[in-house]
Amino acid sequence: MSKPRRKNPSARQKRLARQAAARASRTLADACPLFVQRPPFHGYDKWMTPTPGAVPPADMPENAATVYEIVTALAPLYEGQVPYAAIVLEQQIRSGVLLVANDAGGVVRVPVPDMATVLADTADYAEALPVSDEVLDSDVGRLLHELHALAALVVDDRGVVGLAALV
Questions:
Q1: How far is CA 62 from CA 49, 65, 68, 96, 151, in A?
Q2: Does the reported pTM lie above 0.85?
Q3: Contact 87/70 with Cβ under 8 angstroms?
Q4: Domains of the chain: which residue ranges?
């Protein structure tokens, strides 16, 4: 009497890996709308996933080290996967000036601290919750990334920030 044939263990592992990936995808989709509702720009074609606890090499070039630092810092806001567009947004925040699309189809240079006022002016609650003059750049930067993760603002192929029309 021969033993019953077992399924190929590698096929089973592949099936389990597919199921785990599907679960992870559903979880990320629920948590980060930007991942599901990807804008039609190239900055959303590439997503970086930092490895927790990874140590960058000591001889890493300065530009690569800056990108590594940005990605690891932003990963919690973007549920572990950071789009390339978030790096472009962060570079503009660090420069102190954002390129923002206006209603006429043009581009306006807006200082980062003033962006809080721009965002408040576009909201219905601007009078109810006035923006303090003491808003820090880091607070505005975090707010911009939170809105970006929620797909409330996007960064186009030219690096111009556009506010989404929330309905």
A1: 20, 5, 10, 20, 30
A2: no
A3: yes
A4: 9-163
Tokens representing 55? Answer: 């140590």
Residue 19: its H or E element:
helix 9-31
Contact (Cβ atoms closer than 8 angstroms) between residue 126 and residue 120:
yes
- Written as six digits, the tokens of 73 are 């810092």
- Token pair recorded at residue 132: 């303090």
pLDDT digits (tens, 9 = 90+) for 23-78: 766 555 555 677 777 888 998 888 888 887 777 788 889 888 888 889 999 998 88
**What tokens were used for 38?**
């990807």
Please check whether residue 149 is in contact with residue 142, taking contact to mean a CB–CB distance below 8 angstroms: no
- The residue type found at 50 is P
Return the bridge partners of 155, or none. 161
Tens of pLDDT, residue by residue over 141-154, are 888 898 888 888 89
